[in-house]
Automatic annotation (TrEMBL), chain A:
Biased composition (Polar residues): 558-570
One Pfam short name: 3-PAP
Organism expressing this protein natively: Gouania willdenowi
Residue ranges, compositional bias (Basic and acidic residues): 590-600
Family: Belongs to the protein-tyrosine phosphatase family. Non-receptor class myotubularin subfamily.
Protein name per the record: Myotubularin phosphatase domain-containing protein
GO cellular component: cytoplasm; membrane
Residue ranges of coiled coil: none
Residue span(s) of domain Myotubularin phosphatase: 202-637
One annotated GO biological process: phosphatidylinositol dephosphorylation
Gene name in the database record: mtmr10
Lineage: Eukaryota, Metazoa, Chordata, Craniata, Vertebrata
PROSITE patterns found in the cross-reference section: PPASE_MYOTUBULARIN
SUPFAM superfamilies named among the record's database cross-references: (Phosphotyrosine protein) phosphatases II (SSF52799), PH domain-like (SSF50729)
Region (Disordered): 558-600
TrEMBL record, chain B:
GO molecular function, one term: phosphatidylinositol-3-phosphate phosphatase activity
Role description: Regulates the level of these phosphoinositides critical for various biological processes including autophagy initiation and autophagosome maturation.
Gene name of the record: mtmr2
Domain Myotubularin phosphatase: residue ranges: 137-512
Organism: Gouania willdenowi
InterPro entries: GRAM, Myotubularin, Myotubularin-like_Pase_dom, PH-like_dom_sf, Prot-tyrosine_phosphatase-like, Tyr_Pase_AS, Tyr_Pase_cat, Tyr_Pase_dom
Reaction equation(s) it catalyzes: a 1,2-diacyl-sn-glycero-3-phospho-(1D-myo-inositol-3-phosphate) + H2O = a 1,2-diacyl-sn-glycero-3-phospho-(1D-myo-inositol) + phosphate; a 1,2-diacyl-sn-glycero-3-phospho-(1D-myo-inositol-3,5-bisphosphate) + H2O = a 1,2-diacyl-sn-glycero-3-phospho-(1D-myo-inositol-5-phosphate) + phosphate; 1,2-dioctanoyl-sn-glycero-3-phospho-(1-D-myo-inositol-3-phosphate) + H2O = 1,2-dioctanoyl-sn-glycero-3-phospho-(1D-myo-inositol) + phosphate; 1,2-dioctanoyl-sn-glycero-3-phospho-(1D-myo-inositol-3,5-bisphosphate) + H2O = 1,2-dioctanoyl-sn-glycero-3-phospho-(1D-myo-inositol-5-phosphate) + phosphate
Membrane topology, from the record: Peripheral membrane protein
Name under which the protein is recorded: Phosphatidylinositol-3,5-bisphosphate 3-phosphatase MTMR2
Length: 758, 576
């Protein structure tokens, strides 16, 4: 059934749910039957449940059936005019159980409230169920009309099944096993067929070999001492080490390190410096000796035999607990705090969460390491107690800044694969999929994605992918099907395969990776990942020599006088450091004895010089690190907040326009190609517009002659997401002002609400 | 460095610029790089500093200078220092060796003289600037044709010449649009009841609903609650001109406390008893003094450097964004009343030339996509700001050394900031780019153009500004390419409803922090999109050429293939 539905959904948009906005929706199609996946079973369900769309009134609420399966919580509205799935695995009202942060039942009349876990009892009949989700949604269901018993049962079921006692109870195990048997025939050589470019998984030595070659790291080799995980349970089977280190030595050194994690090569600069990550040394007594040996080997692998710098990240970056607390706070501010009331102190509240401060700290630390690798030409070791958290963030950020390859889609995925999945980031614990140990939960991967977004925000043409891609990637963490986010190490991932098969006949069972986007989105929807502005090697639209380089249009200047005044814009172009005290009167700022001489650190000078040149998007990219340039990632944090949703606006309108432009360029290109081999007889046919639609790269297609008068309604700052019903906040269909007045009490004294509902 | 090498030499080519004392061995204390040695040249238009050891130049129109200070010669080395406080968010400091006392005096005096020509009985440089541009910016705005564009006169509104010689109101333009059934004589009586004679007149009319935005000053109610039958009848006429609604909204931009306090000075606000069917709303926007103080605090926070910690709370403590929010919120309420409520609105503050101008122009920008084009925006400024008497001379203090003047206030900067906020929320809705807005603000101070001189239309006419000075729009319209936004999509029917929340309002770093060299000119999206537009244009051209080629060949090769299409390719729309 699943396979059959697939085809139909391919043509559907990511965004059809946004049809909500249209004044007259088409007549509703009969509600489609509930789709079960192989292995999915209904645990409990309740009828006559109301899903709250709006806190103020319930006229927009949806009536339907609430279902709890072993995979998800599903709500099937009785008549939902826009009930069409775009996500291939989840419907508009579905939440995977792993996505649930907290399950809260409420009894209004008794004023009771209980947070549900596994195997719990409920002493009151719930009138409401509130689901707090890890993707920042908050959903509310009311049971006024549902039977008290069935309401209670479905709540308990959701509470119970969202707290699995064991990893193997996660739905992925059920699903993969079944699916495997259904789709066995489709695979070749034990691996599934992947179309197009393949993301290297770094689970085999050939992937590492290619990476060594790509970065010209000739003094490094692939080492297989950890095959079958005999040395370290958390390292991958294949690692890269200095050629001067023999397997025998490595085995010996491994004893000194936490979790037997020998140092791992990450990346080589073309100047020969290497980035290496390392866990801490267990016994302080052997620390110096071990360091010495490692340093020597790394130095030997450097063409100039230059020194090695060790950066201890535990000492200069926030720990996982602080990061988790910051995230909880900023989530609270963005999604829970009342909108209008939090306006007045919005900026300082955001500051107090410390989230942006941490984002900046990680970017800053990474830039510092970039300085050593690139500016000082020395190899750098980043060290962290376990080498499985902070190191993941910093090593990937450093590589993202230094190597444009990682700013392509495939490159980025391989980076995550290499520095997170294979290096053994403990996704299972950090995501807290089993809800066993809250102290282990920490959104490091989200923090990393936010850092990437900050760079993308500053250099919009440098990345092949979009912020929608980053957001969707973060959401995928909460779907318990992808091996990427289910496990804490390669070993665990490997061993899990065996457990998933009901009858273990084939040891090479395949768990899908999140990079198989076609499992989640249609080809068309995946084009939302493509950045029309991307300037890269493989970029479709530029850099193939057809257009001369576009330098900044030289200003037509009508007089030197004018030019002068225009250029005065750029006073003090040369970079620099704080030399004047900021506060105080003019007189104190301009003290006569003021000495401008300032000790400028070499790294400051290095950054200053870099910033004084125009940025090369194919080369090194350093983000501006001033606090004023750290922005809140609005799509991620505010996408569900109806009050914050700009209708017919937001960055998507620029994306829309640029995509259409690039699509036109693609069409023209293909017309040109057709002409090139064209004889009069093979004149291109009328109306033929470029490649067939499934091969087009852009989500938004070139204009048709009958261009609309207004921007399409689905273009909002939340696109491709829809806030309606996802935050159980007041959702406004009326005039903008009624939205504005919500909570704005200062005006209510002079004007009644009634006057506003025109 | 943006300045071409030849600038230094060519600066003085323009005949109108007089060159004054070049001074060697001057130190410029760059707050970012430290001390730089070089030469200073001061002309009647600018201060020019060229560094001896590097490419660095500093080119400052003297109009930007708000205050010049000698900083005592306390230094043992005998240096003398000058501090310049600028209107565009920076402070500069120079010093040089005190070799002869006369030299020091002369630099200081020359600066004091040419930075403040008005105080010294000299002409503002704009009157000497003789550049000729292909476009004539003074022709951009013509009140009658702008009203005609809006469909005025129509059956409810007429154009009156009652103020033709500025007799009724000397701060209003000569062309006004008023309700049809109020004769000129009555207008004069209404003007007696409105502060400075600024009666309610039409700013904008909705093309479909006929709901209008009208502007005026406060009614002269006073402590005794005076009424004016003519004024009441007049507002009734404004309401009646819109058949769609039996209500009229009066938006008073001030906080209600301030509005009440104005009664002591004879002003006040409309009582709902006197004006039937009218509803009065206060928009809580603070006065020019509060805004000036807020911007001063902002300068403290952003210049020269931003502290590493507490950036957001420091920004919050300036309240700048909060003020921006209140202004935008007011404009949004007006736009919503007119668009969604189909109700006419009257907007005023005390005199109706500061907050009122902000509110009417912003709401018109939201309501009418014409004002989002470059020309439309110029018309909007000419109309709502310049012709309706925003007192630019007083608020900016062109060429006036009295930097503590309480009449100075960043009202117009605030408005441009609000426009920038709108362009951030609707990046494809404006024909102009950020550089256009920055350029307007730069020439607000530079005194190079006549556009922002004087306080009213009458004064500009008296000073003969259009004859004697160049319009900023001449410069801008002669190189539109520089100022246009390649992302612009000309949706004809798009009313902007921004989200007026601190979640979306941002500090305009491209303006307020632009002096910081670490604020690199970002790789701008619009540059990249210009490349794409050029690429498309080129491909289109090549496809067209090939198309012609093929058509010709096929026409000559076989005459019997009559059905051969002359244009077989769907043209892709090109609008580079």
């Amino acid at each position: 059934a699943f396979a059959g539905n697939d085809k139909k959904k391919t043509e559907m948009h990511f965004t059809t749910q946004l049809l909500t906005f249209f004044p007259a929706p088409p007549p509703p199609p009969p509600p489609p039957p509930f789709v079960y996946f192989p292995g999915e079973i209904v645990v409990n369900e309740a009828n006559f449940v109301r899903k709250c769309i709006n806190t103020e009134n319930n006229q927009d609420d949806l009536w339907g059936k609430l279902i709890c399966t072993n995979f998800k919580v599903s709500f099937i509205p009785n008549d939902d005019p826009h009930k069409r799935l775009s996500h291939k695995l989840l419907g508009e009202h579905d939440i995977p159980l792993t996505c649930l942060e907290q399950v809260v039942t409420v009894n209004d009349t008794k004023g009771k409230k209980k947070v549900l876990g596994s195997n719990q009892k409920l002493k009151f009949n719930p009138t409401e169920l509130i689901l707090y989700c890890k993707d920042l949604r908050i959903l509310r269901f009311c049971f006024n009309e549902a039977g008290p018993e069935s309401a209670r049962k479905v709540c308990l079921a959701i509470g119970h099944y969202s707290h699995p006692a064991d990893l193997q109870l996660l739905f992925g195990f059920e699903y993969q096993g079944r699916r495997y048997h259904e789709f066995k025939g489709e695979r070749v050589n034990g691996y599934p067929q992947r179309t197009g470019l393949r993301t290297p998984f770094f689970d085999r030595s050939s992937d590492w070999d290619r990476e060594i070659k790509r970065t010209s790291a000739s003094e490094w080799r692939v080492c297989s001492i950890n095959e079958d995980y005999i040395i370290s349970p958390s390292l991958p089977e294949f690692i890269v080490v200095p050629v001067s280190m023999a397997d025998q030595d490595l085995k010996q050194y491994s004893l000194y390190f936490t979790d037997m994690r020998v140092p791992l090569w990450c990346w080589n600069h073309h100047n020969g410096s290497a980035l290496v990550r390392m866990a801490s040394v267990v016994d302080p007594l052997t620390q110096r000796k071990t360091d010495q040996k490692i340093f020597t080997a790394i130095t030997r692998s450097h063409p100039h035999r230059s020194e090695v710098l060790k950066s201890e990240l535990d000492k200069c970056l926030p720990n996982i607990l602080e990061i988790q607390n910051a995230f909880i706070k900023i989530r609270q501010i963005c999604t829970l705090d009342p909108f209008e009331e939090s306006e007045e102190r919005w900026l300082s509240t955001i500051e107090n969460s410390r989230w942006l401060e941490f984002v900046r700290a990680f970017l800053k630390q990474s830039a510092e390491i970039v300085y050593y690798l690139d500016g000082k030409n020395v190899s750098v070791i980043i060290q962290e107690e376990e080498d499985r958290d902070l190191n993941c963030v910093v090593s990937s950020l450093v590589q993202l800044m230094l190597d444009p390859h990682y700013r392509s889609l495939i490159g980025f995925q391989s980076l995550v694969q290499k520095e997170w999945v294979m290096a053994g980031h403990r996704f299972l614990d950090r995501c807290n999929h089993l809800k066993k140990n809250d102290k282990e939960e920490s959104p490091l991967f989200v923090l990393f994605l936010d850092c990437v977004w900050q760079m993308m925000n500053q250099y919009p043409a440098a990345f092949e992918f979009t912020e929608a891609y980053l957001t969707v990637l973060s959401d995928s963490m909460w779907i318990p099907l992808f091996s990427t986010f289910l496990f804490s190490s390669s070993k665990q991932r490997e061993f899990a395969k065996n457990k998933a098969i009901p009858s273990a006949e084939d040891p090479t069972l395949y768990f899908p990776s999140v990079w198989e986007w076609s499992l989640q989105y249609s080809t068309k929807d995946q084009t939302l990942f493509n950045n029309p502005m991307y300037v890269g090697k493989g970029a479709a639209c530029v850099q193939n020599g057809e257009v001369k380089s576009f330098s900044r249009t030289k200003q037509k200047s009508f007089s030197s006088t004018l030019r002068g005044s225009a250029t005065s814009l750029r006073n003090g172009l040369r970079g620099g450091e704080d030399t004047l005290p900021r506060r105080g009167s003019l007189m104190s700022e301009l003290k006569p004895d003021f000495s401008p001489a300032k000790d400028e650190s070499p790294s400051e000078r290095y950054f200053k010089e870099w910033f004084s040149r125009p940025a090369d998007l194919h080369g090194l990219l350093i983000p501006v690190l001033m606090p004023s340039h750290m922005a809140l990632w609005k799509l991620f944090f505010l996408r569900w907040v109806p009050e914050a949703c700009i209708s017919k606006g937001g960055p998507i309108t620029a994306y829309h326009k640029l995509s259409q432009l690039v699509d036109e360029i693609e069409i023209l290109r293909s017309q040109l190609r057709q002409y090139k081999g064209a004889s009069p007889a093979s004149t291109p046919l009328k109306g033929q517009r470029g490649r067939p639609s499934e091969q087009r790269n852009m989500y938004f297609r070139a204009y048709s002659p009958d261009e609309p008068q207004t921007p399409p309604d689905y273009l909002t700052s939340s696109f491709p997401f829809n806030p309606a019903g996802n935050l159980c906040r007041r959702y406004v269909y009326g005039t903008p002002i009624s939205k504005f007045l919500n909570g704005a009490r200062i005006w209510l004294s002079t004007e009644t609400l009634a006057n506003d509902t025109v | 460095i943006d300045v071409n090498r030849d600038t230094y030499e060519s600066i003085f080519n323009c005949l109108t610029i007089k060159r004054y004392i070049p001074t060697q061995d001057v130190t410029y204390f760059c707050p970012f790089t430290g001390a730089l040695r070089g030469t200073v040249i001061i002309t009647n238009y600018r201060l020019f500093f060229k560094c001896t050891d590097s490419e660095f130049v500093l080119d400052l129109p003297l109009g930007v200078v708000s205050r010049v200070e000698k900083i005592g010669s306390a230094s043992s080395r005998g240096d003398v220092s000058y501090g310049l406080v600028c209107k565009d968010m920076r402070n500069l400091r120079f010093s040089h060796k005190l070799m002869e006392d006369t030299l020091r005096k002369s630099i200081f005096e020359v600066l004091m003289k040419f930075a403040f020509p008005v105080s010294n009985g000299l002409q503002i440089f704009a009157f000497e600037y003789g550049q000729v541009f292909p476009e004539n910016g003074w022709k951009v705005y013509d009140a009658v044709s702008e009203y005609r564009r809006q469909g005025i006169p129509n059956e409810s509104w007429r154009i009156t010449k009652v103020n033709d010689h500025y007799e009724m109101c000397d701060t209003y333009p000569c062309t006004l649009a008023v309700p049809v059934n109020i004769p000129d004589e009555e207008l004069k009586r209404v003007s007696a009841f409105r502060a400075k004679g600024r009666i309610p007149v039409l700013s904008w009319i909705h093309p479909e609903s006929q709901a209008t935005v009208t502007r005026c000053s406060q009614p002269m109610v006073g402590v005794n609650g005076k009424r004016s039958k003519e004024d009441e009848k007049y507002l009734q006429a404004i309401m009646d001109a819109n058949a769609q609604s039996h209500k009229l909204f009066i938006f008073d931009a001030r906080p209600s406390v301030n509005a009440a306090a104005n009664k002591m000075k004879g002003g006040g606000f409309e009582s709902e008893d006197a004006y039937q069917n009218a509803e009065l709303v206060f928009l809580d926007i603070h006065n020019i003094h509060v805004m000036r103080e807020s911007l001063r605090k902002l300068k403290d926070v952003v210049y020269p450097n931003i502290e590493d910690s507490r950036w957001l709370s420091n920004l919050e403590s300036t309240h700048w964004l909060e003020h921006i929010k209140l202004i935008l919120a007011g404009a949004l309420r007006i736009a919503d009343k007119v668009e969604s409520g189909k109700t006419s609105v009257v907007v005023h503050c005390s005199d109706g030339w500061d907050r009122t101008a902000q509110l009417t122009s912003l709401s018109m920008l939201m309501l009418d996509s014409y004002y989002r084009t470059i020309r439309g925006f110029e018309v909007l400024l000419e109309k709502e700001w310049l012709s309706f008497g925003h007192r630019f001379q007083l608020r900016i203090g062109h060429g006036d050394k009295n930097h503590t003047d309480a009449d100075r206030s960043p009202v117009f900067i605030q408005f441009i900031d609000c426009v920038w906020q709108l362009t951030r929320q609707f990046p494809a809705a404006f024909e102009f780019n950020e550089y256009f807005l920055v350029t307007i603000l730069d020439h607000l101070y530079s005194c190079l153009f006549g556009t922002f001189l004087c306080n009213s239309e009458q004064q500009r006419l008296k000073e003969d500004v259009p004859k004697r000075a160049v319009s900023l729009w001449s410069y801008i319209n002669s190189q539109l390419e520089e100022f246009s936004n390649p992302l612009y999509v000309n949706y004809s029917n798009h009313v902007l409803f921004p989200v007026v929340s601190l979640r979306h309002l941002e500090l305009w770093v491209g303006y307020y922090i632009r002096w910081n060299p670490r604020m690199r000119p970002q790789e701008p999206i619009h540059l990249r999109s210009k490349e794409l537009l050029a690429k498309r244009a080129e491909l289109q051209k090549r496809v067209d050429e090939l198309q012609r080629d093929v058509t010709n060949r096929s026409a000559s090769s076989s005459s019997d293939r009559a059905g051969s299409p002359t244009r077989s390719i769907t043209p892709v729309q090109t609008f580079v």
